[in-house]
Each structure stands twice: as C-alpha cells, then as structure tokens.
C-alpha cells in the first residue's frame, strides 16, 4: 500500500488546487490544517518545512528514489504530482508546453492579482481607492483573457483536462457567478463543468468546516489588528 502524502493546507485557493490534484489522481493523503489567522505558519515547526511560511506544503514519504520529499509552492506541487502519477499533464509535445504556460499564467497573474484585489478590497484596514481600482481592473482584464481562450478551447491546454485547469479553478470559481461579472459565459461554463466532477466537489470542501468567520468566505466578521498582524503585519515580518 502506498504511504499517504501529508498535505499542510487550509481553505484557500492555493490549498484547494492541491487537494483537487490529490483527489483527481487518487493519491491517498492526510490533512494537517494550518490556521494562518492563528499564526500556525510562523511556528518553527512549520518554517522548518517551508521557510517562506506559506501553505500548501506536501510531504511525500515515497518521493524520487524512494526518499521523503518536502515540497512547497502550489504550482511546483501540481507539476510534481502530475509527473509522479503520469496523469493530467501531457507527456510531450505542444499540449505539455501549453499546460505549463497556463499553469505559470495562474501563478504569475491570476493568483497575485486576484489576491491583491481581495487584500485591498476586503482585508486592508485603510481603503485606498487607487489600489482597489488598479487590482479590480487587472482582475477584470485577466477574466477577459481566460474568457477569450475558453471560448475557443474546452480546457486551458486544449483538448485535455490538466493541472493548469486545477490551478485556475479555485481562484475564479467564486467570481464568475458574482452579480455584475458579465461576458464570461465560456469561463462560467468551464467552472460549472469542473465543479460537476466528483473529485473536484470533494476537494473544494477540504477543510471547509475550518473556514474562519474573519475571512471573505466566512463573511468578514471580526477581522482585527491581531489577524492582520499574522497575515500582513508585524508577525508576518518577524523572523
């Protein structure tokens, strides 16, 4: 029996993309919840796994050469799991490069821009109209890029469902049905098609019971300066 992978994560887009991959690939795993509002990511034990103090992190006891592998950065984890299983990443050719392209697009553009919008719109104590407008506009532009592509292709890498789709989905699945988000019919259809997959449905619910009321998904109740310190302030920058 294959020893389970340990997944350190929480109910965020970057965490969920890895749980999607693990569920889709049928890999056994155990969950270690990291409460970022409580400061779990700053503990010596967690920083020994990831000095960048972010989740997700995986520990695969059956890594390359049979040696244990600790790996962080969600895109790198998806790439590793795809190569480990030989699934959801074309073995060669144009489709493989396109899967890598769209994975990098999510890592370099969708995640950072959507995340910065959420920061300034929801979490920042002081509201800066320029910052909100800047990241909202960039988020809208990226939605248009994805909409244009998916109006002509079934999946991001073409004809096959890949880790690129798994990477993008958690960042956009809560956006496409928001009132006022228009002209994203192809992107919305892609989201609904993915969310109909049993593995995706299960993966999106991983750690959902742990959602904090102080987060966007929890309704933004009682977020205070202590939480901001853990995420963006003194606790985040004290090493």
UniProtKB/TrEMBL annotation:
Any one GO MF annotation of this record: glutathione transferase activity
Domain GST N-terminal: 2-89
GST C-terminal domain boundaries: 92-217
Record's keyword annotation contains Transferase: yes
EC number: 2.5.1.18
Cited Pfam families: GST_C, GST_N_2
InterPro entries: Glutathione-S-Trfase_C-like, Glutathione-S-Trfase_C_sf, Glutathione_S-Trfase, Glutathione_S-Trfase_N, GST_C, Thioredoxin-like_sf
Domain of life: Bacteria
Keyword annotations: Transferase
Ranges annotated as spanning the membrane: none
Enzyme class: transferase
Identification of the protein by name: Glutathione S-transferase
Organism: Candidatus Phaeomarinibacter ectocarpi
